[in-house]
């Protein structure tokens, strides 16, 4: 009975956390460059249940031999093991703003260890000596002429240098060359993550690498991409599927809740009625 409480409770916690993750996805359905989170729910290791019994041997003094009779496996509940962002390309939205730039996925190599394709990102100087990465190309030109992202981080070029412009009257080619007055002043930097699942989210659509700065995508074997000025890559959240998943998670939570209430009523009956002396 008590094991049932723990099993049902773990199921409720897992579904609650999954609902919170899905709600965050829905809240960012219109956030440029946002990558939807995915969850994996796993079962705790199962326990082998056995019945303790004894066998009586009719000797002169009598002998009882204790033994175990297998009953079967018992699940000990579930848990949400981890959340992983999906790096599928989001849809493009035209804005007409010269400072809005979409980084479009091309041919990306498949990682042999994970079986998933790599990912490419804009490179940002986050001010603490390391780089951050994003697919949100909603940039602006600050008061000093530097190209920055919404968090105020400096956009880096192919040489990991900040990009300084005269104003927002510039153009970007499909290969990432930034031109002013017909002259190339910089090339947008692009980072390539062979295993993007190893990146850490740092908020506001930003990612960081615990293993140091990512390598440049420029010249990397098999890595293809292009740029589109005046466009933004939107969130890759599928609103319809997310709403369906939220409803399924809610129903699963509700089912676990009803089982918990049934256990509670059974315990109440056991305490108040079983063993009552008439």
Automatic annotation (TrEMBL):
Chloroplast listed as a keyword: no
Domain Flagellar basal body rod protein N-terminal: 5-35
Source organism, top-level taxon: Bacteria
Location in or out of the cell: Bacterial flagellum basal body
Span of domain Flagellar basal-body/hook protein C-terminal: 228-272
Ranges of residues in domain Flagellar hook protein FlgE/F/G-like D1: 118-178
Matching InterPro entries: Flag_bb_rod_N (IPR001444), Flagellar_basal_body_rod_CS (IPR019776), Flagellar_FlgE/F/G (IPR020013), Flg_bb/hook_C_dom (IPR010930), FlgE/F/G-like (IPR037925), LlgE_F_G-like_D1 (IPR053967)
PROSITE patterns: FLAGELLA_BB_ROD
Keyword annotations: Bacterial flagellum, Cell projection, Cilium, Flagellum
Pfam family, one: LlgE_F_G_D1
Main subcellular location: other
SUPFAM superfamilies: Flagellar hook protein flgE
Family per record: Belongs to the flagella basal body rod proteins family.
Name of the protein: Flagellar hook-basal body protein
Organism: Sporosarcina quadrami
């Amino acid at each position: 009975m008590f094991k049932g409480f723990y099993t049902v409770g773990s199921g409720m916690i897992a579904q609650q956390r999954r609902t919170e993750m899905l709600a965050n996805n829905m809240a960012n359905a219109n956030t440029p460059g946002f990558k939807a989170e995915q969850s994996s729910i796993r079962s705790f290791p199962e326990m082998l249940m056995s019945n303790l019994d004894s066998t009586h041997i009719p000797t002169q003094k009598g002998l009882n031999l204790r033994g175990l009779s297998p009953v079967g496996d018992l699940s000990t509940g579930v848990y949400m093991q981890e959340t992983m962002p999906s790096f599928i390309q989001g849809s493009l939205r035209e804005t007409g703003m010269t400072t809005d730039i979409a980084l479009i996925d091309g041919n990306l190599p498949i990682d042999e260890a994970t079986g998933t394709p790599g990912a490419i990102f804009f490179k940002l100087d986050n001010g603490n000596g390391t780089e951050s990465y994003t697919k949100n190309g909603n940039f602006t030109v600050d008061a000093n002429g530097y190209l920055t992202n919404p968090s105020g981080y400096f956009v880096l070029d192919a040489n990991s240098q900040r990009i300084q412009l005269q104003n927002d009257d510039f153009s970007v080619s499909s290969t990432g060359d930034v031109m002013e007055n017909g002259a190339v002043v910089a090339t947008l930097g692009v980072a390539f993550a062979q295993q993007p699942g190893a990146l850490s989210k740092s908020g506001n659509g930003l990612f960081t690498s615990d293993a140091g700065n990512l390598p440049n995508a420029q010249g990397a074997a098999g890595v293809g991409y292009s740029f589109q000025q005046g466009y933004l890559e939107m969130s890759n959240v599928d609103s319809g599927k997310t709403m369906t998943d939220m409803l399924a998670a809610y129903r699963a939570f509700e089912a676990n809740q009803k089982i918990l209430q049934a256990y509670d009523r059974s315990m109440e009956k056991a305490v108040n009625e079983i063993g009552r002396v008439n």
